[in-house]
């Protein structure tokens, strides 16, 4: 019985330790993907005509071309009201991914850029 308890405790410690390392590695990967982008925030439906519903798009100049990032995330819900009918310069921080051939930015923060 003592041996069985020792084996089970060792297995539990090993599982806990490896789970901790996996979580730490995942956090590091996620943190590496967090970016801050600046560009023109506009509405995909009302301004660009590329969506059926109002969606914030951040248009970012990358070299010679403009890349559209479709914004998702809780902070955008209030922000979209500011740009739906009139685009504004904005700064957004979040995680970039690609879905259905479109770049998306899951924002943790988005705000109107201060005018110079």
Automatic annotation (TrEMBL):
Keywords: Signal. Residues 1-22 form the signal peptide. The keyword Signal applies. The keyword Signal applies. This is DUF6370 family protein.
């Amino acid at each position: 019985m003592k041996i069985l308890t020792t084996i089970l405790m060792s297995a539990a410690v090993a599982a806990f330790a490896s789970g901790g390392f996996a979580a730490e590695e995942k956090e590091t990967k996620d943190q590496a993907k967090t970016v801050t982008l600046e560009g023109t925030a506009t509405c995909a439906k009302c301004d660009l005509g590329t969506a059926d519903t109002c969606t914030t798009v951040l248009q970012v100049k990358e070299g010679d071309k403009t890349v559209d990032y479709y914004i998702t995330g809780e902070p955008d819900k209030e922000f979209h009201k500011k740009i739906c009918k009139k685009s504004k310069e904005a700064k957004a921080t979040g995680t970039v991914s690609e879905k259905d051939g479109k770049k998306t930015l899951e924002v943790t923060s988005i705000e109107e850029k201060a005018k110079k």
